[in-house]
Amino acid sequence: MGSFSIWHWLIVLVVVALVFGGRGKLSGIMGDAAKGIRAFRDGLKDEPTTAENKPLPTAEREKDEARG
């Protein structure tokens, strides 16, 4: 009664494989969390753009060049 049978160990191994395996939900969640953190950090690095520093679209740039 104090020890686990082979069936108990098989069930534990299946659960561990599902949770920590290559296609497990936990590894997918951790990968998505890492991507979110990386995107957040990249967003913090970007400097805010102002209207003065913002490049003109191609059509407006061509109009400005044609005017002089």
| Whole-number mean pLDDT | 75
Strand percentage, roughly?
under 5%
Sequence of secondary-structure elements: HHH
Envelope shape: rod-shaped
Task: Note poorly predicted spans.
Answer: none
Q: Based on helices, strands and strand pairing, what is the structural class?
A: mainly alpha
Distance between the termini: 93 Å
Rounded to an integer, what's the Rg over CA atoms?
28 Å
Number of distinct helices: 3
Largest sheet composition: none
Helix content: 55-70%
Say how many strands there are. Answer: 0
Please tell me about this protein's structure:
- This protein has 3 helices and no strands.
- It has helices at about 5-20, 25-45, 60-65.
- The model has no long low-confidence stretch (mean pLDDT about 75).
- With about 70 residues, it is mainly alpha-helical.
- It is about 70% helix and about 0% strand.
- The termini are far apart.
